[in-house]
Amino acid sequence: MTDAKEFLQRLDDAAQRTEAALDRLLASEPLRGEIARPARLLAAMRYASLGGGKRLRPFLAIESARLFGVEGEWPLRVGCALEMVHCYSLAHDDLPAMDDDDLRRGRPTTHKAFDEATAILAGDGLLTYAFDVLADEATHADAQARAKLVLALARAAGLGGMVGGQALDLEAESAARSLSQEEILTLQAMKTGALLRFAVDAGAILGHASAAETQALSRYGAALGAAFQVADDILDAAGDTAALGKRAGKDAERGKATLVSLLGLDGAIARRDRLVEEAIAALDATGFGPATQVLKDAAVFVAARKN
């Protein structure tokens, strides 16, 4: 296992690099082909995406690409595009029509800091810009690789991924019956797991991975994403608002379908730990040996996190 201090330093380094790159991408100067960047909308997009978060998704993209010797701007830009999609989803999920949250990362949610219409437009802007970033030649010299990245993120973020998962989550709140374990797992794989899996899939795309390497990394990403969501459910049930930076206990308040409600806290913890083991085993199948240690540590970190 990597020294804990070293792992956290690499995570923090990726977060700082992502923050700086997002800051540059969300500058006031229009890009070629843009007409103008409205100041208030830009401010809301920056508010929604800058100044917080562990940047786990960009970190996973960066470290996955590193397995193939791909470093620098390419994986960083992919990480920024992914973070834009993630942050747009948070801005929209926090709206009164969705999860109705006032607090995110220890500060007012985007619609509270601005207004609901601006929060919706900020999310729209971040989502659209993410694909702009991926399609740009600066993200990869190979047009086919860029097209694969665009397609993979669209599939992970859209109807059959994150957006579809959010729809299932909202439906479950008013359903006449509780969801089965299989239904909860499908919902969570879509809503949360799909973007985390994309992060490692993106590293494989950037590095022109073999089919076997791609499959092993995708299995890792799927197990990691599932572990992340179970850990999130556990934190919501057992954590506190101050530590989380968002309202604790909201899943139970809204009657959300989680593995904690189905399996109990101990059962959910046991499943989380099994998923971490699955993620680590998937990395062993990549053939990269010790080079995967940081990604193994990421799986352990996901399970042990406090916020």
From TrEMBL:
GO CC, alphabetical: cytoplasm
Entry keywords, A to Z: Isoprene biosynthesis, Magnesium, Metal-binding, Transferase
Family named by the database record: Belongs to the FPP/GGPP synthase family.
PANTHER family according to UniProt: FARNESYL DIPHOSPHATE SYNTHASE
A GO term for molecular function: prenyltransferase activity
Organism: Methylocystis bryophila
GO biological process entries: terpenoid biosynthetic process
Cofactor(s) required, per the database record: Mg(2+)
Superkingdom as given in the UniProt entry: Bacteria
CDD domains on file: Trans_IPPS_HT
Protein name listed in UniProt: Probable farnesyl diphosphate synthase
Pfam families referenced in this protein's UniProt entry, alphabetically: polyprenyl_synt
